[in-house]
Design brief:
The protein has 266 residues and is mainly beta. It is built from three helices and eleven strands; from the N terminus they run βαββββββββββαα.
Length: 266
């Protein structure tokens, strides 16, 4: 339905409004190379590893991460961010004959960083509407900073098998540090058998860690965000009309050279 309302240009400042947002106080980006991490397998996959001639890494996927934020006692306003990643890694195992067999295991990796999050110790109470009853307060919170981690799935850089008689070093993470609910991501429960071959992997991980606080900011405002695009739905009675609205796929006929030509020095 047409209206007489006109939109305000973004350059026109109308008023100052107070908004509640998460402000990023500090952040960092990291490139972690995690060498010789122990891969914990299930009993069934461990049996396959015992007779393996070689292993071929396939992929790695982050299943879960646990994040803990604690203030630094000797430096006010700074916090340690402890992150523990739980990663599922899969391999193709060659046993000398026949087709390779797929096995999966779990890797745990601990990461720590120090970021600035300012100071403050206020307690926050909020209410929740309860229909046909008295409103209740939600669980009390503090205005301490909270951390978020943005991460890509790791890159498998290397993998090797260690025999029981070899000295492969000390495992940085014990299987007891892997929560029980991680087992739900695998067909069988993970285990740690004594006197068996061990599988180690080296992973590369890109991540961004942010430390944020919930704050109130005064910002310039132009107008309310009113949607201008109307809802549309394809007409099933007119498939040719829908086809006529599609953009011609030129890239499929003439693939673009996004990396430049060989004449430019490929």
């Amino acid at each position: 339905m047409p209206t007489n309302r006109t939109t305000t240009p973004a350059s026109e400042f109308r008023e100052a409004v107070c908004v509640n947002v998460d402000r990023i106080y500090d952040c960092c980006k990291d490139r972690d190379c995690m060498q010789d991490l122990r891969v914990y397998l299930s009993d069934q996959d461990q049996e396959i590893l015992e007779s393996a001639a070689s292993v071929k890494p396939i992929e790695a996927e982050i299943l879960w991460s646990y994040i803990d934020v604690e203030p630094l006692a000797f430096n006010n306003g700074f916090y340690t961010v402890d992150i523990q990643f739980f990663i599922r890694v899969s391999f193709d195992v060659c046993q000398g004959k026949g087709r390779p067999q797929r096995i999966e295991g779990c890797v745990a990796f601990n990461k720590k960083t120090i970021l600035y999050g300012s100071e403050g110790g206020a307690r926050i109470f909020t209410s929740e509407y309860a229909p046909q009853s008295c409103d209740r307060n939600l669980e009390v919170r503090s205005n301490r900073p909270r951390a978020t981690v943005e991460v890509l799935d790791p890159i498998i850089l290397a993998a090797h098998i260690c025999d029981p008689c070899d000295r492969c070093g000390c495992d940085t993470v014990d299987i007891s540090c892997i929560p029980g609910y991680i087992n739900s991501y695998f067909e069988n429960d993970l285990c740690d058998r004594e006197g068996c071959r061990r599988l180690y992997v080296t992973l590369g991980l890109f991540s961004i860690v942010r430390l944020m606080r919930e704050v109130q900011l005064l910002i310039p405002a132009c107008d309310f965000c009113i949607p201008e695009k109307e809802s549309c739905f394809p007409d099933e009675q007119d498939p040719c009309g829908l086809f006529g609205q599609m953009e011609f796929p030129l890239d499929q006929f003439f693939p673009p050279n996004k990396n430049g030509s060989c004449a430019e020095g490929c």
